[in-house]
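pasting for the record
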Amino acid sequence: MLVGVPKEIKNHEYRVGLTPASVRELVAAGHAVIVEPSAGAGIGASDADYVAAGATLAANAAEVFARAEMIVKVKEPQPIECAMLRPGQLLFTYLHLAPDPAQAHALLASGAVCVAYETVTAPDGSLPLLAPMSEVAGRMSVHAGAHCLEKAQGGLGMLLSGVPGVAPGKVAIIGGGIVGSNAALVAAGMGAEVTILDRSPAVLRRLAVQFGTRVKLVHATREAVEAAIAEADLVIGAVLIPGAAAPKLITRAMLAHMKPGAVIVDVAIDQGGCAETSRATTHAEPTYVVDGIVHYCVANMPGAVARTSTYALNASTLPYALALAGKGWQAALRDDPHLRNGLNICQGKLTRPEVAEALGLPCTPAAGLI
């Protein structure tokens, strides 16, 4: 199969779909890879590195899309990229369609076969291709929040760790999954006072084993969420319903009870955000203020640490890319029900029920299309 790797064009996105090492694995398996010039510049991988790994350099993105049978990316295709997709072409990348009807309609119109990293599952029900970026985003959320708490950024003027004689900041993390636990790891390590709220007793038990008494664990009732964010200096939204729009757990009315200059970092923004006042931002303009509360809602947080993120992501995505290229998408999805869960759009039909519900569109079961 001819696999194409375009350069990412989303605002301040420096990751790349395949590293040179991943290209070498695909080539060794008998596939061909075509790469857009400078695609790996953001992770320090030169065009010469890709050529040495066995790739061919394209003239531009248009050639990559025109020739490749499978496109491997990181972020969702931008409108100009959706327009270059063709019927039957395979797209393997993050999509996050539930809060993005424009992208969904563009991909449906393209006729392409779109497999989303974020809905591929593992036998235990986890999301193996979302996990590495959730780890990165969770850890970054505390760094970003600590920066936003600085007075020059509109924040309280607080050092999250505190100093001897001055209390540390209070961090409320809504959601105890991979994002939340990684955020807590960094926040607690900095010396902040950390509370994690989650509705799952099993998750709270797991976190109790992980953190012991270093982190306060609370069952996430509405009352508990309201109380926690009212006391917090930094709130991290880390909720996830796989494939679906994030629930709005932080209402605008709650902001009135928060400290002026407090910060919300909404890591759930890829799925629409868990605060009513959240809207996607970019690394170029990462924050805005609503009712005195600083909002950080960058939709591609891991893109800022592109080298770490790309290598972490490729370690997880490569086996699936090899399966798709080696068997073809139909056989690969028939053979692996967990990879089949990644199919979101197939030749003009929407196949994920959560996305269909969020967008108000009909859903066609994937099994009938492969």
